[in-house]
Amino acid sequence: MTSGRARPAVLVARRVFPDVLAGLQRHFEVEANDTDEVWSPEELRQRLQGKAGALTTGSERISAELLAACPDLRVVANMAVGFNNFDVAACTAQGVLATNTPDVLTETTADFGFALLLATARRLTESEHFLRAGLWNRWSVDMFAGAEVHGSTLGILGMGRIGQGIARRGAHGFGMRVLYHNRSRLSPATEADCRAEWVPKADLLAQADHLVLVLPYSAASHHAIGAAELALMKPTATLVNIARGGIVDDEALAHALRTRQIAAAGLDVFEGEPTVHPELLALSNVVLTPHIASATLPTRRAMAQLAADNLVAFLVEGRALTPINPDVLTRVG
Ligand code: GLV
Predict the structure, then answer these.
(1) CA 240, CA 257: separation in Å to the nearest integer?
(2) Residue 333 confidence (pLDDT) above 80
């Protein structure tokens, strides 16, 4: 329990686990969001008045404009590894520490990437819908024949921790040849551990039987997969996006799927989510999930706890566990 001076006030922008909230309440005056509504930017701005910290999710945009209107804010702790909802430069300029939740979700998210790859290549949801619709009346030699996964070529665009987890699953579990493209190459030791080979992006697109996107979203990665990139892929290829909407041009992807320029896609993230491009919804050769790659209870608990621990570490002890802009620490330290 913090004693003496008035306790700092923090905002928890979405519903989290009660024990995580209780932990925060031991240190702070906490305003929570029990209804779990996504607040408008204006409502978020109002609720942040007088708050020293905020626990946010990808749904809350921390913009330069918002920061300028919230002079008491000192730390924003995102319950996500991605932080494209933060204007990090504006946070730094304003002396606001920004944190995220790396590591705790790596293996869970890599599991899901592989699940989506398998579901897409082996036409899992399409065949289940067929069965549930009462259309299954006989065995047939090529019914829902999909693409081979074991022994095929796995391409990974973005080779951070999650990409490496997917590479290891593919190489060691499914005997896949693993190619990757990333701005910087992995060390030879990590490449050997992942049994992964760096190739230029065009080669990755042309050679992958299954291409998984795991790169962070930024202006530089906006529409990293558009019409030109899709045109380089094999007509038998599958594309899996567990990174962020906006990395793929959804309109171009819908066209490529409709015209069978590529075979299928598995998508956990979308441009403008939770709205999904209507053409994607209408296609059968796409597996769609609602941004759940990190969604196991142990992992979501670990993410919420790490975000909360970052608020406590900074506001109580002046340090941070997983800072995005650690420069702020040296300035306030
Ligand atoms: C989820 O999308 C995350 O960035 O953690």
Answers:
(1) 13
(2) no
